[in-house]
């Protein structure tokens, strides 16, 4: 793990709040979860870089450039979901179609989160239309950590314990990924 570089990306930021519901901003949840994940991955011996460490705006191109410029081994973008229906719930992990290692990474992260979080499994899915997955040159995933528009999930997402659990599940998934691809 020593020489493995992981870039983690808290989605949105600055003038782009992402999804919002009841005074909760996705950009803030993403940054908080990513900061927790940063510590856990460093503790496992990875070299870790965050695309942003504060409430600043970065374009999608900036995020991709950061990942591509440091010879990154894997890229993880952290998000929270939203829907017009407050009944939509669960977590999902997205990867770029045709990326075999991206699919493996998405699968192990998704399974780890489902095992640890006791939340609806929306699966891991190929998504050809997501810029940060399409243009990064390494295995990349986008993790949707729950719906802020679902009352039960938003109540979980605002707790330190649940955000710690999300970060731990993703970190465990990363460890599992490196066992699988050996």
TrEMBL record:
SUPFAM superfamilies per record: Zn-dependent exopeptidases
Pfam (any one): Amidase_3
Bilayer-crossing regions: none
Keywords: Hydrolase
A GO term for molecular function: N-acetylmuramoyl-L-alanine amidase activity
Entry annotated with the keyword Protein biosynthesis: no
Segments forming domain MurNAc-LAA: 64-175
CDD domains assigned to the protein according to its UniProt record, in alphabetical order: MurNAc-LAA
Protein name per UniProt: N-acetylmuramoyl-L-alanine amidase CwlD
Species name: Halanaerobium salsuginis
